[in-house]
Amino acid sequence: MMAKNQTLGEFIIDNQADFPYSSGELSRLINSIRLAAKVVNHEVNKAGLVDITGEYGDTNIQGEEQQKLDVYANNKFIQTLTNREIVCGIASEENEDFLTIKGCNGDHQNKYVVLMDPLDGSSNIDVNVSVGTIFSVYRRLSPVGTPVTAEDFLQPGNMQVAAGYIIYGTSTMLVYTTGNGVNGFTLNPALGSWYLSHPNMKFPENGKIYSTNEGNYIHFPQGVKDFIKYCQEEKEDRPYTSRYIGSMVSDIHRNMIKGGIFMYPESSRARNGKLRLLYECNPMAFITEQAGGKASDGFKRILDIQPEKLHQRTPFFCGSKKMVEKAEEFMQR
Ligand SMILES: O=P(O)(O)OC[C@H]1O[C@](O)(COP(=O)(O)O)[C@@H](O)[C@@H]1O
Ligand SMILES: [Mg+2]
Ligand SMILES: [Mg+2]
Q1: Same domain, yes or no: 243 and 213
Q2: 232 CA to centre of ligand 3 in angstroms
Q3: Binding positions for Mg(2+)
Q4: H helix runs in the chain, sequence order
Q5: Does the keyword Cytoplasm apply (predicted)?
Q6: Cβ–Cβ under 8 Å, residues 156 and 306
């Protein structure tokens, strides 16, 4: 039976049976993510007070302006995962190539790789709007004891063993799945503990919110234009409400609670959309499916895409099952 006011630490211990093959490593991995998240949260909360916001003065591999907090969060998560010797490799939005992590004896004994978007929604940092962190965990394919290879990172999303996000919003939450449903923990900043506040999160099967950057409307494929018109039509339970924060984590988190669809489709300017398959779409798709929702590129399941490149992009439709099915119906006409 679930204890009242259960902390994340207690939850992990109570749910060890979720990880039949785990020797405690995956639990330790989640533990180090919750620690790094607290440190990053502390820094994010000071944005505006001290000189941690604004541009870092460099661009990342995707040619995007890096914010100081992008770099800070990237370093913190890498540092925490590396120091604790839990993973053998890390890939990040902010690094061109994956990093190989050796144990203290210079070996490669660990079995997990982590892919992450250390700060999602960077353009919202300076304006005090929620941002997030996204992570995705795989068991390595190459033999333990040898250096990691690109193939360890280029696995389809259906091979994920865990995925989660942290949302730095009105409160800070850590939401994750190990393939047995989705649970959300809220940080009590005074105590520094995460409490199980949202057990067994579920996407409503249908919803009344659509979230997309409608400023790109003119460049959207006809299917998306038609679906947006459908959402706006005065019929049955429509028109739906349009809500777009511009931090995917926050947009999907809201839709998971209230019911809705998030879309970042391809456009005539960006043939594969904007969002990255490996550390943005796959983890959010895994969480979404575990919560009873659906995630697609408009035609096929996100989690079944065989990745070819670390920073590969994909169109993304994610949310309440019936709404994603409806969007696919328009895309496939
Ligand atoms: O400004 P746009 O084009 O609508 O893009 C917003 C999208 O870009 C992102 O900010 C991309 O993430 P990063 O901030 O990690 O690059 C998503 O969180 C968000 O959904
Ligand atoms: Mg992002
Ligand atoms: Mg980012």
Answers
A1: yes
A2: 31
A3: 93, 117, 119-120, 280
A4: 8-14, 25-44, 68-83, 150-153, 222-232, 248-258, 282-290, 321-331
A5: yes
A6: yes
Which of 153, 169, 198 delimits the end of a domain?
198
How far from the centroid of its chain's Cα atoms is residue 207's Cα? 21
Span from the CA of 230 to the centroid of ligand 2 (angstroms): 28
Query: From atom 9 of ligand 1, which residue's Cα is the shortest distance away?
Result: 121
Look at ligand 1, atom 7, and give the residue with the nearest C-alpha. Answer: 246
ipTM over 0.85: yes
Answer for the pair 124, 247: CB distance below 8 angstroms, yes or no.
yes
Contact 260, 289 (CB under 8 A): no
pLDDT tens-digit profile of 42-90? Answer: 999 987 776 666 666 677 777 776 778 999 999 999 999 998 888 999 9
From 149, 173, 198, the end of a domain falls on 198
Domain count, the chain: 2
Strand 261-264 and strand 209-211: pairing? parallel
Rounded to the nearest 5°, which phi and psi values hold at 297?
-100, 15
Residues in binding site for substrate:
120-123, 213, 244, 274
User: Mutate which of 61, 165, 247, 276 to test ligand 1's pocket (most atoms within 8 Å of Cβ)?
Assistant: 247
pLDDT tens profile 174-204? 999 999 999 999 999 999 999 999 999 999 9
Task: Tell me: do 141 and 120 sit in the same domain.
Answer: yes
Question: Taking 60 as the threshold, does the pLDDT of residue 1 lie above it?
Answer: no
| Nearest atom, ligand 1, residue 64 CA | 16
244 and 275 housed in the same domain: yes
- In this structure, the answer to whether residues 186 and 228 fall within a common structural domain is no
84 vs 113, higher pLDDT:
113
**Ligand 1 pocket, residues with Cβ under 6 angstroms:** 64, 93, 117, 120-123, 213, 246-248, 264, 274
pTM of the model: 0.95
Residue nearest atom 1 in ligand 1 by C-alpha distance: 246
Range of the domain at 108: 8-198
